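not sure who needs this but someone in the group chat was asking about Helix-turn-helix domain-containing protein from Nocardioides simplex so here u go. i didnt clean anything up, its just raw.
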Amino acid sequence: MATAKKARAASSAGDVPPRKWLPVEDAAAWCGMAPDTLALYARTPGTPIRRKRQHTRGSKHLYNVASLDAWIESWEDA
């Protein structure tokens, strides 16, 4: 859970990305995990992470910053 604290500290310090949607590489870097790991968590049923498909880039997805922030907060509550 050190990753959650690291990401949460950056988020509360005002380092939340200004964009509403991020590509998987940027979202994973912001959360402090590997892109493959984030994609795996986002695909599991019942996850609060919202994502949408980029129509211009094939099967690439964009991840919602607010849902990622809430997901990280839930780690701290657990």
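also The chain has one domain: 2-77. if thats useful
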